[in-house]
Specification:
The chain has one domain (6-106): 2-Layer Sandwich (HIT family, subunit A). It is built from 2 helices and 5 strands; from the N terminus they run αβββαββ. The chain is α+β, with helices and mostly antiparallel strands. The protein binds 2'-deoxyguanosine-5'-monophosphate.
């Protein structure tokens, strides 16, 4: 756990969140500022600030985050219609919380390219 990391505090239960699913390795909760009718964040319990800090030792965990996103999309009823997973890395891409998190967005049409 990193000091002063909001998502570490959510993972530890010290800050409340609308949790939809969790495992020993990750926790998924609704985004406080949703950008789509369904907007869920999947975060590892392990503190990794950005994708740039992830190494080969995190490969399986990162893969399981994607599989969690797939399962959550099915539970939320957006799997067939379509959904988007996004992992912003660093401020130039829009990252504002420096604990990696996978956005799962759905429930509306998505434009491409993203802004
Ligand atoms: P990013 O911009 O990729 O770093 O995404 C951070 C997301 O985190 C953003 O969509 C808003 C969300 N967020 C920030 N603070 C909180 C919080 O306290 N609770 C919840 N549930 N989401 C938060």
């Amino acid at each position: 756990m990193a000091d002063d990391c909001l998502f570490c505090k959510i993972a530890a239960g010290d800050v409340s969140a609308d949790t939809v699913r969790e495992s020993e390795e990750w926790i998924a909760f609704r985004d406080i500022n949703p950008q789509a009718p369904t907007h869920i964040l999947v975060i590892p319990r392990q503190h990794i600030a950005t994708l740039n800090e992830a190494g080969p030792g995190e490969a399986e965990m990162l893969g399981r985050l994607l599989l969690a996103a797939k399962e959550i999309a099915a539970e939320e009823g957006i799997a067939e219609e379509g959904y988007r997973t996004v992992l912003n890395c660093n401020p130039g891409a829009g990252q504002s919380v420096f604990h990696i998190h996978l956005h799962v967005l759905g429930g509306r049409a998505m434009g491409w390219p993203p802004g």
